[in-house]
Enolase-phosphatase E1
Amino acid sequence: MASPPPKVVLLDIEGTVCPISFVKDVLFPYALEVLPETLDSQWESPEFAQYRNAFPAEHAASRTALLDHVKDLMSRDVKISYLKSLQGYLWETGYHNGQLKAPLFPDVAPKFSAWARDGTRIIIYSSGSVNAQKLLFAHTNGDPTDLMPLINDYFDTVNAGPKTESSSYEKIASQHPEYPINEWLFLSDNVREVEAAKQAGMQSFIVERPGNAALSEEERASHRVVKSFGDF
Ligand SMILES: CSCCC(=O)C(=O)COP(=O)(O)O
Ligand SMILES: [Mg+2]
């Protein structure tokens, strides 16, 4: 039986709405560039304490320890929540002063407007923190620049859980019980995430964008693959 059209589109970010290169070649270097000065100026500040205290004690014992730990985690693209929270804090200044602007793929903003027009809810689920997600969608190259008014909710690994576990998608859907889980469509570049969403009962397509990891023939045979939000 054909799946019903989605009532909710649940969207990954990196590799789905914007290039992986924006995260790896712009956001990450920016965070590493501003971190030393942030540690020097805010190490004792109450505002920074929430980020510093979220780190394991052995890595928050000194500026050097925290900096070295962050460099190691980011070099391995470890998507651990306390790092993602700190990254979001570091990116705030860059977005607000115009140094950072999210290069959405050209099909994304028009599709957001189309989904909004036809009543399809737009919800974000990313390894990036909810704060980082809101900063990204508020500062885009799209038209309109600020897409936040079109987005209904945000989930990350703190309020939903790991993106490769089906329970995380069940938890997200449970936050919006007015939409049956089989009427959710999850879009991601990550095959393991797509599989987890399907296991939870969602529809899910792999999004293939320039710069994404190559897909195997088996992955292409097992999942619908789309190259643009205009493909469906
Ligand atoms: C929200 S912008 C920063 C994205 C990020 O740090 C990240 O790891 C993205 O992973 P995703 O789950 O969106 O592929
Ligand atoms: Mg991704």
